[in-house]
Amino acid sequence: MKSISSLCIFLLSLGLSAQTMTTYTYAIKGKDTLKMDVFTPKGIGKDEKLPVLLWMHGGGFSGSHRAYPDDQKLVSYVAKAQNYIGVSIDYRLLRKNKATGFGCDCTKDEKIETFKQATIDYLDAAKYLIAQAENLQIDTTKIIAGGSSAGAEGSLNAVFLRDYFIKDKAAYANVKFAGVFACAGAVLNASYISKHNAIPAVLYHGTEDNYVPFANESHRLCLPQQAGYLKLDGSKVIAAKLQALETAFYFHMVKGAGHEIARIPANKDLDQIFEFFNQTVIHNEVIQTKIIKEK
């Protein structure tokens, strides 16, 4: 029995060490030194180029970090189970220690500026990866954007609302995304999704999310008379837009569920998600899937 246990521990240790992690600084902005953890599969061929998951953590633009266990587990998983390079990034937490937080006391203009700066940080991280593509062995044509909660908002806006938020478009001309994976995310305005920027998307959301709207609703359920009243377009609107544009999507909604759907899905779901990206990003298939579950 002892020898079997030792074998199990040995095999487990092999699985856990099936990737390497290196930390890089991708930008310094004022007092913020923004870093990324890059997980690379072990045994990658010298001339091999791999797809990337570029992940942005949640936390209401005020907390959490790139090495939060759930986020780190995801980028580690894609490196050892999916043969991707997994990247988890820092970004500026502009609502940290702010008296108004990011709720209904935070003004509409402050919210939009927070989304804008998160979009810029996300694009800067992608730009850094592309500049280092040779060293990091990245296939720059297969970068999957992604994030949960605030990170889903930041990455979705970077993918679909670059024309709204970014004035110096030439600075990010080389940044292109092949897909997006958002857990409880929304965009400022889904009308900016077009044939020009529509890409395969995985969207997870609860229908009763009271933080990030599921459809076209008020952020944080703020009332029209409150300073933070701002309507956003959530996963339901994004999926409908992609369907109309005949673009691939995998829309997983949970009826009656709230913001807990921002949590990263279990590995069995992740296997399905990355099979979707294999079919749509790697093999250019158009697959439109809608899954409806009850809480």
UniProtKB/TrEMBL annotation:
Domain BD-FAE-like residue range list: 36-153
GO molecular function, one term: hydrolase activity
Keyword Hydrolase carried by entry: yes
Classification via InterPro entries: AB_hydrolase_fold, BD-FAE-like_dom, GDXG_lipolytic_enzyme
Keywords: Hydrolase, Signal
Span of the signal peptide: 1-18
Alphabetized Pfam families for the sequence: BD-FAE (PF20434)
Protein name: Acetyl esterase/lipase
Lineage: Bacteria, Pseudomonadati, Bacteroidota, Flavobacteriia, Flavobacteriales
